[in-house]
Design goal:
The chain is mainly β and about 375 residues long. The protein folds into three domains: about 60 residues, no CATH class; about 80 residues; about 130 residues, Jelly Rolls, CATH 2.60.120.760. About 5% of the residues lie in helices and about 35% in strands. It is built from two helices and 24 strands. Strand 9 and strand 10 form a beta hairpin.
Length: about 375
């Protein structure tokens, strides 16, 4: 029985068997291995076959064996299944370049405020108190606050952002009798429960130390000079008011002069202080004005850095306006005098800083 191939007039590859030699491949007549090879080349490209330890590995072009970056092909996932998954789920894009750094945010609020009026320390028998503070968003109703030298209070009500009504939670050991203006008010959580653990066992007695040698008798020193009179200690906070004359605003910076007593504080020792000026004034000029304030160290003849404040004050007839200057002040010597300076965009006698409603205070921080 003879084996033969087709006569070339039909493109069906009939008659080609392992025992016969097929005719030369052509566009009209092509063997199955050739057709498969051409299809693979056209569909995939060049496919590389490698063998290691009896295992055959096919490497596809264009990294189709591993998949797209960010969209890996599964280790046992068929190529057709991989394509279907990409069509259905979509191709995940690559991570773009890092964007520019955003603008710096505005400064936050201080995590404390300052008490501006004196009050008697609450007791268990009389636990409620009332006092004024510098308005601050960190103090809210229902919050637990801490007053140094007093203890923990619960804020019951805040009237017009200034007047606080509070109830005692717990006193510190040996609380002060009264709270002075300028005392810090700190938001905090309630004090934890104090638990004393059992005493540990007594440790072994240590060895007796070596007896020290007897020192020689020293000579009698000369009588020292009489020391200078000591400086009376100052409190950690203070509040002062000036008087008796109201101050009329000018268009250039000038010291707020209340006549006999200026609105100023003397910082007793070198260190860092929180200085606060409460300013009450009247703007009755007939138009809106800008009021500027700053702190000035008259001892060193220098402005206090970053203490300057600016505000627009609407004509309000005889309605008083209130402004604040709050600044950190660092001194290098004792008894530096810190004064309040002010100016208006257009001065008139109807713009005044009033003696009543104005005060300065300080708290020593370090």
């Amino acid at each position: 029985m003879s084996c033969g191939c087709s006569d070339g007039t039909e493109n069906n590859n009939t008659g080609c068997t392992p025992c016969s030699q097929c005719v030369e491949n052509s566009a009209a007549v092509e063997s199955l291995p050739s057709a498969l090879d051409n299809f693979t080349q056209q569909f995939f490209g060049t496919v590389t076959k490698t063998e290691a330890n009896g295992v055959v590995t096919w490497t596809l072009p264009c990294s189709l064996d591993v998949g797209l970056p960010g969209n890996p092909r599964g280790s046992t996932e068929g190529l057709a299944c991989y394509f279907i998954r990409l069509f259905e789920a979509g191709i995940t894009g690559l991570v773009g370049p890092k964007g520019d750094t955003g603008a710096t945010g505005t400064d936050g609020n201080n995590a404390y405020t300052v008490i501006t009026t004196a009050f008697a320390t609450p007791t268990v028998g009389s636990p409620t108190v009332q006092f004024n503070i510098i308005p601050s968003p960190v103090i809210s109703v229902g919050q637990t606050v801490y007053v140094p030298t007093v203890g923990w209070l619960s804020v019951d009500q805040i009237f017009q952002d200034t007047t606080v009504f509070a109830t005692l939670i717990q006193l510190v050991s040996s609380p002060s009798v009264t709270v002075s203006p300028g005392t810090l008010l700190l938001p905090t959580g309630p004090r934890g429960v104090s638990i004393t653990g059992p005493a540990g066992p007594t440790g072994p007695k240590g060895d007796t130390g070596v007896t020290g040698a007897t020192g020689a008798t020293g000579s009698v020193g000369a009588t020292g000079a009489t020391g200078a009179a000591g400086v009376a200690a100052t409190s950690a906070n203070s509040i002062v008011t000036g008087g008796p004359t109201d101050y009329v605003m000018t268009i250039t910076y000038a010291k707020v002069d209340f006549g006999a007593n200026d609105l100023e504080v003397t910082l007793p020792t070198a260190g860092t202080y929180l200085v606060i000026a409460q300013i009450g004034g009247v703007q009755n000029s007939g138009a809106t004005r800008e009021w500027d304030f700053k702190l000035y160290n008259s001892t060193t003849a220098a402005d206090i850095t970053q203490s300057e404040t600016f505000s627009s004050v609407v004509d309000g007839g005889l309605i008083p306006h209130q402004r604040w200057v709050i600044s950190l002040v660092t001194t290098l010597a004792a008894n530096d005098v810190i004064q309040l300076y002010a100016r208006s965009s257009s001065a008139t006698v109807t713009q005044t800083v009033n003696v009543l409603g104005s005060a300065m205070m300080y708290v020593k921080l370090s």
